[in-house]
Amino acid sequence: MQNRHVNAVVIGAGAGGGVVAKDLSSGGLSVVLFERGRWHTFDEHGDDELTSQRTFPLKCGFGPDNERNWRMAPDGEKGWRKVFPNDWSYGNNAACVGSGTVSYGAMAWRFQPVDFHLKTKYGAMPGSTLDDWPLSYEELEPYYEKAEYELGVSGDPANDPFTPPRKNPYPMSGFSFNREGIILEKAAKNLGLHPFPIPMLRNSVPYNGRPACIRMRSCVGFACPVGAKAGTQNTVIPTALKTGNCELRINCMVSEIILDDKGRARGVRYYDADNKLREQTSDLVVVSASASETARLLLNSKSKLFPNGAGNNNGWVGRNIQDHAYTGAYGLFDDEVYDDVGPGACIAINDFNHRSPDIIGGGVLCNEFIRMPYQFTTIRPPDSRSWGKEHKDFQRHNFKRHIAIHGPVQEMPVFDKKVEVDPLVKDFWGIPVARISGLRHDNDIKVAHFLADKAEKWLKEAGAVYTWKAFPGKTGTPSQHQAGTCRMGNDPETSVTNRYGQLHEIDNIFIADGSLHVNNGGYNPALTILALGYWVGGHIIDTWKGTKMK
Amino acid sequence: MVNRSLSRREFVRLVTGGTTALLISFNTACRNKISKWHFLDEQEITLLDAIAEQIIPTDDFPGGRWANVSNFIDKQLDTYYRIHQTAYREGLAALEKTVIGMKGKKFEELSFAEQTTLLMMMESGEFRDNYWKDHPSADFFDMVRQHSLQGYYGSPGHGGNRDYVSYRMLGLDYPNVIGQNRYKDLSWRIYNSKSPEYAK
Which positions ≥6 away from A318 have C-beta within 8 Å? Predict the structure, then answer.
């Protein structure tokens, strides 16, 4: 049976796609929202660490599955090796309704105003495609606010002098500190720093028909048992479905955007839940499949006019993939610092985000989410034994006596850090797979060392009796914070979309996910992806005129 | 054909899988006289128990053997870790052979200290003869080490962490009853109302 033609196809029901589907369907467009995964509930996962989205030795609980999805990863001199989603070299991002917003830690950061004009601030940077965004913080601010109010964010910026300007307060008050937070707050103040509660896409009080957070130990990497954590799956996607204009099609893998002879999209080809190849025609297509899969889909969508993939005649699709080079330090304490009040991460400082003359960029520093028992087996000072009595003693003695501080280093975009499509290897459905390669910029490593020093100093001030640092290297596959592969820009030569996420070359294809980021900030990117969803969705509604754009 | 040593799983394979499956199942059935295990046999389990006990030794809390680490690994070898079946079958056999060659005894018959020394050799890649030439002993050891830690510290639902032993050892409330483990101490509920103990 042929599918009914619709106004819009949205590919990927994560942060960006969920918001766009809601905006378009509320605006009266008929929408099919495609998701390669399915719905997930807390009950089917519980707090099983080994299949969480945080540590996943057995599988990524929230997808993608190992049976049908694989990629190629660099393998030294041998070239490439096949990797599965639960290998860190794969660079997974959850694949389910809500995607990463089901199981994330839910930090709700706005980028700093300066993040939108980094090139103006720091100048051109050798070895990097650093650039200004084609939109300003001031333009995006109302959309940040919309995300904060429609999904629900708890925060209190009163003690953060560096908080990005905002017209209205957060809809909910900030979270209290757990024991770690209380200890670290005092120490930060002693050091002249400015600690404040991390803004969270998590209810501190009942909000929008969902209850307040119950402070579970297992939060990041897990679904919320009471729905206090806001994701698109329990906010905007249900709203979209209620309009009657949006059909959510789960377990469907989109393989290709169909391009016509005139160089426009006329819909998508996809494998349905029974793995049958089908077509869904539409007036416009919105791609929000994550930085790696969005790029892969465009690269796999070829036509006479686009032999290198949709919108890729300048060769920029898939380039500049960024993530966050996580860095930080651990400290051991004489007394117990653990009070089992989840999710653990609660306190942050913005003092080292663009505010130090010694570095370019920077990042927020936070105490880390609760380290679950298996995850903690990997947290040891350098040269420690990884098994036997010493290992067990450390586990027993320090599980409740350690604090971790870490932060996401703002990565400098590198043109050769990229997503490509493998010329030979295909996935379960026969779709060419992605391969991700490239090295971080030297600046990222420099900033990582700078921030790790600050984290260690903070721990020592808090009374840690032993500390050690942990920094990233130049390798590492962009994973749950992946961004930048279809950057927006005013110059069609050096970007993939215009400032509204519309492909320069194809006016009825839009991007709405982290792929758009010109840079990825020194913060977890979820709120910015949500805000861009509202920005892109709003633009489509404003300019939509019957069957074409105004 | 269907004798008592065939587990239900193998029986299902037999009747559904055709000739190849039949031969494999027959082979497996011969290996596993006791069908309690999914993939490993009794001998392999004994050896793995001894290794798991080295990775997580008993102190005043039970170690890897008591916590059913071997059961965890055996279960995974029939599900998520099917890709490691060959590595375990060959690696455990090679370890036994190497140890008998060196000590004239089976690994599990050696003293605890002797076992530790051997595993440290294995960890640093010092086994280099025969099988280990093409399969670095350090790689095999590290895999078994990681899987053992998963079995001991992961959720009991996967077959290890018997009786929540590791969670009890770490002092974590368990089972984690949704919402219920939080009400003992309400001080976290109100921002700025810090318990005096930590506010000093």
Answer: A295, A296, A298, A299, A312, A418, A419, A420, A485, A486
